[in-house]
Design a protein that fits this description.
Strand order of the largest sheet: 1-4-12-11
Protein name: SET domain-containing protein
Shape: globular
Strand content: 5-15%
Structural class: alpha+beta
InterPro entries: SET_dom, SET_dom_sf, SET_SmydA-8
GO molecular function: N-methyltransferase activity; protein methyltransferase activity; S-adenosylmethionine-dependent methyltransferase activity
Number of strands: 17
Pfam family, one: SET
Largest sheet: 4 strands, antiparallel
């Protein structure tokens, strides 16, 4: 059953020619308030995926799965063939005259590219109300037409569905491609299973995009989306989420939004190449000049052209886009290849690429996040054994990350929550060592700071579903917070 709840009197739907429909706060919103909780119009496999169970969407291993007794689609257990989400496509598949047989576990699997579009198309018969709601969503079909993605979708989805399901006269190519566009523009990645699935939500689709949004997005175990405010929002403010990854550089965000959502982002963050003076996308000038002592940062000459010429903000030296791309591609490949669970690998990467990348660059921040977790993080006792200098480094890395998040992504609850937990653990250990050194005054301050970070971790991860690791981190933070309160003599 489709359902949604907007927090009472929290928001109203507005519209204009430039932005279409969007939501505006109708009163001051307190930090922690839920804005929207909504079940999906439709939920299914991602377009690029290996075989998954058509009932629960859990990934499957080759030779370790069952088949729906009626249609042949893979399931992880017998009960999944009876899941409501599978019934319409099951009946539709039976109509082709033969069962589906998934023989090879390709990634991406060509047959699975069709499944989410088919689920959407079948709503016209199985649930007309949802179908009408789906059709009201933006598809950007005119902007998509002729693009490489559109050509791939035409061959891999729009032409395959009629042929594979033997339904040549049921839908034409344009109908199918419109639905594919709606999925790509409005689909939300749902990280409840491995691999992630995709869901479309009606009301959540009205939230506008910002690369520095004021809302956070989570999910329930049932796949409902939960939109909430990590920080206070003023009456009249427009409510936003991020359609891309806030932890990507501006160039990467712009490219991803253009390719998948078909618009060029003009948000405040994208219009500020320095990203609130964090230089999250910047490079070091000195890395591109032999024996240079310039301490300036390179950014694009034209903020609309991140693949063009770059210029130093201090000495005005220009560097070609090709030289910039070469360094960034090398850094990306090495980042993907490195073993992030190894502290020495993290340090080696940071030492090497700090020559070219600004201290807060996306790639270095990615490694710092790993570093914050691997220093003293192998098991609960490991942090007790690390040297003092490593403990202080862990604290500094966490503090630097939190300061960065507060500037570029203050609503990124998962990043905040995980980092707050690591900082809480490090400060608790520092407090323990101070206690052992009979420095009770320092210990009290450190333990109070640790408790504050544990509470912030809980606040940021409160809405995470029990299926995800973040929920387990939140639960551990609760246990630790209670222990700290007892140590500090704090009563509820």
């Amino acid at each position: 059953m489709y359902r949604f709840v907007i927090g009472e009197t929290l928001a109203q739907i507005c519209s204009n020619e430039q932005y279409g429909r969007f939501l505006v706060a109708t009163r001051d919103i307190k930090a922690g308030e839920i804005i929207l909780k909504e079940s999906p119009l439709v939920h299914g496999p991602a377009q690029i995926t290996g075989p998954v169970c058509v009932g629960c969407l859990q990934g499957l291993e080759e030779k370790k799965y069952l088949e729906c007794e009626r249609c042949g689609w893979p399931v992880c257990k017998k009960s999944c063939q009876d899941q409501p989400a599978h019934q319409a496509e099951c009946k539709f598949t039976i109509g082709r005259g033969s069962k589906i047989s998934i023989q090879h576990f390709y990634v991406p699997h060509p047959t699975y590219q069709c499944l989410m579009p088919v689920r959407c198309l079948l709503l016209a018969e199985s649930d007309p109300a949802r179908w009408e709601a789906l059709l009201r969503l933006e598809s950007h079909e005119d902007e998509r037409r002729g693009s490489q993605q559109w050509r791939n979708d035409r061959e891999g989805v729009a032409k395959l569905i009629p042929r594979f399901f033997k339904c040549e006269n049921k839908w034409d190519e344009d109908e199918i491609l419109r639905i594919v566009g709606i999925i790509q523009v409005n689909g939300h990645e749902v990280p409840l299973m491995e691999p992630s699935s995709v869901a479309i939500y009606n009301m959540a689709s009205m939230l506008e995009h910002s690369c520095r949004p004021n809302l956070s997005k989570s999910f329930t175990n049932r796949g409902e989306v939960v939109i909430w405010a990590p920080n206070a929002i003023r009456r009249g403010d427009r409510l936003s989420i991020c359609y891309t990854d806030v932890m990507w550089t501006t160039g990467n965000r712009l490219e991803h939004l253009q390719q998948t959502k078909m618009f060029r982002c003009e948000c405040e963050r994208c219009n500020d190449p320095t990203e609130y003076e964090t230089y999250f996308s910047a490079l070091r000038c000195s890395g591109f000049q032999k024996d240079s002592k310039c301490k300036g940062y390179l950014l694009p000459v034209d903020k609309a052209q991140w693949t063009g010429e770059w210029k130093c903000l201090r000495c005005s030296k220009e560097v070609t886009g090709a030289a910039v791309c070469q360094i960034l591609e090398r850094a990306r490949i090495d980042l993907e290849a490195m073993e992030k669970h190894r502290e020495d690998h993290c340090n080696k990467y940071m030492k090497h690429y700090s020559k070219w990348l600004a201290p807060n660059h996306q790639f270095l921040v990615d490694v710092k996040i790993s570093l914050s977790q691997v220093i003293g993080g192998n098991n609960p006792e490991a942090i007790r054994k690390i040297p003092y200098d490593k403990l202080m480094n862990k604290i500094k890395v966490c503090q630097d990350l939190i300061a960065l998040f507060e500037k570029i992504c203050p609503a990124e609850a998962r990043a905040f929550g995980a980092t707050r937990f690591e900082l809480h653990a490090a400060l608790a250990e520092l407090g323990r060592r101070s206690t052992e050194s009979n420095n009770s005054a320092a210990a009290a301050v450190q333990l109070e700071d640790s408790l504050h970070n544990a509470n912030e971790c809980i606040r940021m991860l409160l809405h995470e579903p029990s299926m995800l690791m973040e929920s387990k981190i939140c639960a551990q933070a609760r246990v630790n917070a209670n222990t700290l309160k007892a140590l500090l003599g704090i009563k509820e």
